[in-house]
């Protein structure tokens, strides 16, 4: 059921759900309370969801393309197998959400909060996660393609055996993170000091990165 170009309230969405699984295109949900609604399999394209509440909503197998959701609240929502592509979700909240097998590609997630999420099989690719809260997330054995994790809170994260293809860890909080056998040769490690390298024990870095770390001590390599 296609729904296009409308501004929708909770009651509007509930009425549409009674008629089947909706496909929303260029719809405005700004500030709406869509908490606890069953939106399994729904499609959202070019929609606006600024400050929208999707608390504890069922969004399993939903698809999101080119949506804008500044400060949207996905706390405790079920997003199993959901797919997000080219969405702007800056400062959104995902606390305790179920993100198993969810995919984020080409998304802006600056300042997003992912505390205590269920994330087995979660994929981030070519995303901005600047200043995001990803504490205790496990991305072990993943291949991370062009993730900008600058200034992100990565405390307690598990990156063991992970391959970084581009991207940045510049000035990220890495307290308690693990990088054994991780391949960091493609990542930007700017801002890292030798005194901060304990989490990187056993990781692979390039000669250029090693020289940059030594330069932090004021030494010259000849």
UniProtKB/TrEMBL annotation:
It comes from the Bacteria. SUPFAM superfamilies: Pentapeptide repeat-like. InterPro entries: 5peptide_repeat, Pentapeptide-BTB/POZ_domain. This is Pentapeptide repeat-containing protein.
